[in-house]
Design brief:
Blueprint: E1 8-12, H1 17-28, E2 32-37, H2 46-56, E3 60-65, H3 71-84, E4 90-93, H4 117-142, E5 145-152, H5 162-182, E6 187-194, H6 200-204, E7 209-210, E8 213-214, H7 221-233, E9 244-246, H8 247-254, H9 268-271
Parallel strand pairs: 1-2, 1-4, 2-3, 4-5, 5-6, 6-9
Antiparallel strand pairs: 7-8
InterPro entries: NAD(P)-bd_dom_sf (IPR036291), SDR_fam (IPR002347)
Protein name: NAD(P)-dependent dehydrogenase, short-chain alcohol dehydrogenase family
Pfam families: adh_short (PF00106)
């Protein structure tokens, strides 16, 4: 489904992993998709290569170099979108950075360097807030829009590390409280819990399961993008503003599947429930 006039989205951290899938799926659905990442934007660079692939399939993806720890650089991204697109309908906060010694997530917090705070919280939480501030200024003025925080079940149970959980729980609470202050503006905010993601790295590992979850029933990055697209188009999304939603459940309710037609599993039961903040997040069938 595409729009006669393409709506405009910004996906932060859109060059790889989940972000790449969201960019690809939104562009395929007819969005003009701006996306950020570190590095150049030429055809030889990662950002440029993704834009070229999307363009080759008829989509519109626009890469912008941005270090999300630099507030001035983030502001410049929004200024460029305003100047060239004149609107912003969707912000997907997906930027994330791994700490040094990523495999060290198996170590307890007191054995990890305190510098883990910078990638996991400054990038994984604060950067989402900064982008949301700029997006809300544009969206509130226009009277419509949606902010989506890419989060995880790490808010509900221990996952990876202490700081990972701190950041993800902060994203959920951020969406819940932003929804309170956005009430009546036409702008909504949600947090989206993803399950296990079938990234290129994970698929290349040869594993059939990870942390007890089957890769056969995990989520493609493009699946997440299709779910985000459906939520952004949902005329009743304002009723769920502030909620923490589960991507697998939202996909199932709408008949959205992985690229191979499989239906991802929800991890709700494994982690003891759904979101901790905002209105109830149970998916309802659409259509």
């Amino acid at each position: 489904m595409t729009d006669p006039i393409a709506r405009v989205a910004l996906v932060t951290g859109g060059a790889g992993g989940v972000g790449r899938g969201v960019v690809t799926a939104l562009a395929a659905a007819g969005w003009t998709v701006w996306f950020t990442g570190r590095g150049g934007t030429t055809p030889e660079d990662r950002l440029g290569r993704l834009a070229a692939r999307v363009t080759a399939t008829g989509g519109d993806a626009r890469p912008v170099t941005c270090d999300h720890t630099d507030d001035a650089a983030v502001r410049a991204v929004f200024e460029q979108i305003a100047a060239e697109s004149g609107r912003l309908d969707l912000l997907v906060n997906s930027v994330w950075a791994a700490p040094d010694g990523f495999v060290g997530f198996d170590a307890p917090f007191w054995e990890r360097p305190v510098t883990d705070w910078r990638p996991l919280v400054d990038v994984g939480l604060r950067a989402h807030y900064v982008a949301s501030v700029h997006a809300a200024r544009t969206m509130v003025a226009a009277g419509s829009g949606l902010v989506v925080n890419i989060s995880s079940f790490g808010s509900r149970g221990h996952l990876h590390s202490v700081l990972y959980g701190v950041a993800k729980t902060g994203l959920d609470k951020m969406a819940a409280d932003m929804a309170v202050e956005l009430r009546g503006t036409g702008v909504s905010a949600i947090s989206l819990w993803l399950g296990l993601i079938r990234t290129r790295m994970l698929l290349a590992s040869g594993l059939t399961e990870f942390a007890g979850f089957s890769l056969d029933r995990a989520e493609d990055p493009t699946f997440v993008g299709r779910v985000v697209d459906a939520l952004a188009r949902d005329p009743s999304i304002a009723d769920r503003s502030g909620a923490t939603l589960i991507s697998a459940e939202e996909g199932r309710a709408r008949g959205i599947t992985n690229d191979d037609g499989t239906q991802p599993d929800s991890h709700r039961d494994a982690f003891g429930g759904g979101g901790l903040f905002g209105p109830g997040g149970t998916a309802t069938t659409v259509g």
